[in-house]
Write a structure and sequence with these properties.
Elements: H1 6-11, E1 25-26, H2 37-49, H3 59-78, E2 86-89, H4 92-106, E3 112-116, H5 125-128, E4 136-140, H6 151-158, E5 163-169, H7 181-190, E6 194-198, H8 210-213, E7 217-221, E8 231-235, H9 237-242, H10 266-271, H11 273-286, H12 293-320, E9 325-327, E10 339-344, H13 348-356, E11 360-361, E12 363-365, H14 370-375, E13 384-388, H15 395-408
Parallel strand pairs: 1-11, 3-4, 3-5, 5-6, 6-7
Antiparallel strand pairs: 2-8, 7-8, 9-10, 10-13, 12-13
Helix pairs in contact: 2-11, 3-11, 6-7, 11-12, 12-15
C-alpha cells in the first residue's frame, strides 16, 4: 500500500475509541497530538514494573535503563544522526534556554546571532536575551503580508562575517509555510555560522532527516509527535563538545548529558521509544521490510505528508474563498504544514468555543506567536483561530469542520 490506511492509523490511538473523544473532530494537534498506544503501553509498563533508578544491577533497573537507551538509539537512527547526538529534556522551551546559556559563555565580544520574527517565542526569547550580555541580535524579518521568511533577506545580515548563530523555525506554528532549511543552513555555514532549527511545528508531520538538512541543532517536542511530554534535541557532536557543559561536571564527557542539567524523567524518556514503535508499525503495514531505520523514517514521513496535503487542501480552498477572514500562510497545502491559522473579524476564542458545540475541538489565541502575528498586523486582542491537523485527520473530519464553520461564521 502506498496510500495511508487511515483505519489502521486510527486504531493505533486509544483516543479515537474513548467516549470523551470518539465523537469529536480534533483540530488542536499543534498544541499536542493524541498519544499512540505504543507510547501509552510503554509508559504504563514502566510505572508498573520499572519505576526505580535505572541502570542498576538488578533486573527492573537494568530493563528501565535499556528502554531509555532504546528510545535514544532508535529515534536517532530514524533521523540519521548518531545516538550520542540525541538528548531529552523536560520541554523544547527548557532545552532552548539551556542551549542559550551555553552560547552565552561561548560567544565573544563583537559576535552576533540572527533570530526571526516568525518564531514561537520559545526559539526566540532565550536567544534575544543574550543581547543583555553584549551579543548583537539581528532580526531576520518576515514579509508582513505573507509571513514568509525570504532567504534573500538573510544574506545582508550575514555579510560582515560576524554572525556565529542563526536561529529559525522549520515552519511557524501560525504561518506554517515550510522553510527551505537546507538552503538556509548552507547560507549560514558559508558565512561561518552554526544553525539552530526549531522543528516543533514540523516534526509531527514526519520525523525530519536531520543529517540531510545539515543543521547543527534541531529541536522538537515528543508530545506533539504522538509521545510523552519531553523535549528532544539533536546537536552535532563537534559543536556539542565545544559548547560549555551545562550538566554535572563529571558528566561532561557524555554528549547527551551535557545539556540536561536536571535529572531526566526516566519513564517518559523510555516511553518515547513508543514513537519509534509506531513509525515502524506504519512502515510494516504499508511497505516491504526495510532494515535501514532512516529509510523507514523517510518512507513514513512521505506517507504522512501525502495524507495531510490531501486532507488539508479542501479546508484551505474553503477559507480562501471567504471574504470575512484572513488566511495566514500559503494556500497550497504542499507548501505548508497542515496548521491553519485565520484572523477573523471578531475574537477567535469564542468562535472556537462555538465550534466545540458542533463537535469540533480547536482553539483561538496568539499561541505564543506574538511576534509574527504582530508583524503581520493581526490584532492580538482577537488572536487567530487555529485549525491544526496531522496524518490521522480524515477527510470526514475536515468536511465536518467546514460545515461547522459555515454555521458559526
Amino acid at each position: 500500500m502506498t496510500t495511508l490506511d487511515l483505519a489502521f492509523v486510527r486504531a493505533q490511538f486509544p483516543a479515537f475509541s474513548t467516549p470523551e473523544l470518539r465523537d469529536r473532530a480534533f483540530f488542536e494537534n499543534a498544541g499536542g497530538s493524541y498519544a499512540c498506544g505504543q507510547v501509552i503501553d510503554r509508559l504504563t509498563r514502566f510505572y508498573r514494573t520499572r519505576k526505580v533508578q535505572p541502570y542498576g544491577p538488578y533486573a527492573a533497573s537494568a530493563a528501565g535503563g535499556a528502554e531509555m537507551d532504546e528510545a535514544r538509539s532508535r529515534l536517532a537512527a530514524m533521523m540519521g544522526i548518531k545516538t550520542k547526538e540525541l538528548s531529552f529534556g523536560p520541554s523544547t522551551t527548557q532545552n532552548t534556554y539551556v542551549l542559550a546559556q551555553a552560547f552565552r559563555r561561548f560567544l565573544g565580544a563583537g559576535d552576533a546571532i540572527v533570530v526571526t520574527d516568525q518564531d514561537h517565542e520559545a526559539n526566540s526569547g532565550p536567544w534575544r536575551r543574550l543581547g543583555d550580555e553584549g551579543v548583537e541580535i539581528r532580526e531576520w524579518k518576515i514579509d508582513p503580508a505573507t509571513g514568509q521568511l525570504d532567504p534573500a533577506r538573510l544574506a545582508p545580515l550575514l555579510a560582515d562575517g560576524r554572525v556565529r548563530l542563526v536561529c529559525f523555525p522549520h515552519c511557524s506554528n501560525v504561518v506554517a509555510e515550510i522553510n527551505p532549511v537546507a538552503e538556509i543552513v548552507a547560507m549560514a555555514h558559508g558565512a561561518g555560522a552554526v544553525t539552530c532549527v526549531d522543528g516543533v511545528s514540523y516534526a509531527p508531520h514526519g520525523l525530519p532527516d536531520v543529517a540531510g538538512l545539515g543543521t547543527d541543532i534541531y529541536l522538537f517536542s515528543a508530545y506533539k509527535v504522538y509521545g510523552p511530554h519531553q523535549g528532544i534535541m539533536a546537536i552535532r557532536e563537534d559543536l556539542g563538545m565545544r559548547l560549555p557543559n551545562q550538566g554535572h561536571y563529571f558528566n561532561g564527557d557524555t554528549l547527551y548529558k551535557r545539556f540536561t542539567p536536571a535529572g531526566p524523567d526516566h519513564a517518559q524518556v523510555a516511553a518515547s521509544a513508543g514513537i519509534a514503535d509506531y513509525f515502524d508499525a506504519l512502515h510494516a503495514h504499508h511497505f516491504p521490510a526495510e532494515p535501514d531505520a532512516a529509510r523507514r523514517g523517510a518512507a513514513v514521513h512521505d506517507l504522512m505528508r501525502a495524507q495531510e496535503v490531501s486532507a488539508c487542501q479542501p479546508l484551505l480552498d474553503y477559507l480562501a474563498a471567504r471574504n470575512d477572514l484572513r488566511l495566514i500562510g500559503p494556500r497550497d497545502a504542499a507548501r505548508r504544514a497542515p496548521t491553519v491559522a485565520v484572523a477573523l473579524d471578531r475574537a477567535a476564542e469564542p468562535v472556537s468555543a462555538a465550534l466545540a458545540e458542533h463537535g469540533i475541538n480547536c482553539w483561538g489565541g496568539d499561541f505564543y506567536a506574538v511576534r509574527p502575528l504582530t508583524a503581520m498586523g493581526v490584532d492580538l486582542g482577537r488572536g487567530v483561530l487555529r485549525l491544526s491537523m496531522v496524518h490521522y485527520t480524515s477527510a470526514g473530519d475536515v468536511a465536518r469542520l467546514i460545515a461547522a464553520l459555515d454555521k458559526v461564521l
